[in-house]
Specification:
Elements: E1 18-20, E2 32-36, E3 42-46, E4 49-52, H1 60-76, H2 96-110, E5 117-121, H3 127-134, E6 138-143, H4 155-162, E7 167-171, E8 185-187, H5 198-204
Parallel strand pairs: 4-7, 5-6, 5-8, 6-7
Antiparallel strand pairs: 1-2, 2-3, 3-4
Amino acid sequence: MHLSTIPLLRCPATGGPLSLIEPPDSEWIETGTLRSIRSGATFAIRDGMAHIYVDDQRWAPKAQEARGWVQMARDLGFYHHGDEDLRLPYFGAPPWIDIARQFDILLDIAEPGPGTRVLDLGAGRGWAAHCFARRGCQAFAVDICDDAQIGLGRARAMMAQSQLRFDTFIADGENLPFANDSFDFVFSAAALHHATDLQNCLSRLPAYYALVGA
């Protein structure tokens, strides 16, 4: 996570700002602890990924779903990936052919470029945030699954391949840990139907100037 991202962060429980407990060694924070200035609650940064959520009854079904995705991938034999997924969405096979076409249309409409702050909501492996980062955007990816193969942990391989870094968060999309007006637009692909309370999720997005992709 970038050190410069911290002023944008908010505690999901209190809405107050977060601070980094440990003195940073560089602009990129690989491991550390964030603390809520109001409540003292702490949130871990592991492998460059910030885990900023309240572990309560609202988070429980999301955590269960994340575990379920991993188990299903193992059971069905598609848990491990080759390097082909690092090219997403330009994979050249269904369903990615249609996804890539729709994504290119969105890029033509939104024209994100250097300095544009983009939130990838329900980011999966982080392929969209990676694409935005390659265009010079300040990209932020949020998902509930941190798995290194099928979750947001896979974004590390994408970053290593392209030598780019973008911010990744394990967080609740219905209780986002960011200050209002932090982003120029929000992107979401095949994710909103996973919301526990879709109406509540959508009601929070206008504060982020939402632009939702297919």
